[in-house]
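User: I'll paste a sequence; please echo it back and then give the predicted structure.

Assistant: Echoing your sequence first, then the prediction.
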Amino acid sequence: MTAPLTPPHRPSSDNPWQTPQHWDGPGKAGPGSRPAAEGEGDPGPELLRAVAVALLVTVAGAGLGLLWVWLAPRVPLISDGTAVFLQDSEGEEAIGADGTFVLLALGFGALTAALVFWFRRRGGVATVVALAVGGVLGSLLAWRLGEWLGPDQDVVAHARAVGKGVVFDAPLQLRTAVAAWLAWPVTAMVVHLALTALFGPRDPEPEWGTFPGWAAGGPVPGAGHGAAGPGTAPGGSVPRVPPTGS
């Protein structure tokens, strides 16, 4: 009589290297793998937070505009009754307004990026884009607010109002407007990316599927059995060769 063979449709239970039924391979979900968090992968909340960041950064542009009006150097003008001239033709106050705006924008960019990272504690493309959009809109708001709260924009009417030979302030203007508008968003993106790279959470290591025996702390299949080689029995012992007659 011969031993019954294992049916072809039923794997042998003696094979320690057979793949479990619910194991999908390396890097895939299996016994002991972390289940997906609820709502993970849903872009809705991330987009809402990005919109909120953009709005808050834009509103912060009002503070930049107020500081610009307060700190920007004044350009003195004088009228002789027929034309308006610079009181000091060699003065550098004309470019001081641009420099003040750019420096303030750099500071606001770094500050807003640090605050967003402090409250969010993570990066993301949506957050970086929101900082950039909010920085541009905040710079535009600061520029228009500074011009509105600053000296009168109508130089001729202002000269007529103060009279001949009276010194008055020129209106606030940005001669390098594009560069000034980009200082805030570029700084915010660079600072936020740097903070995320230095202090942001790291991506978890990929989890590998495990065999049930390994997950339960059981012995490793095949452990203690030497590698089968020529002349080695399945149990790891060398078969005994019967002596041959002379």
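Helices lie at 43-71, 93-120, 125-149, 155-162, 177-199, 212-215. The first helix runs from residue 43 to 71.
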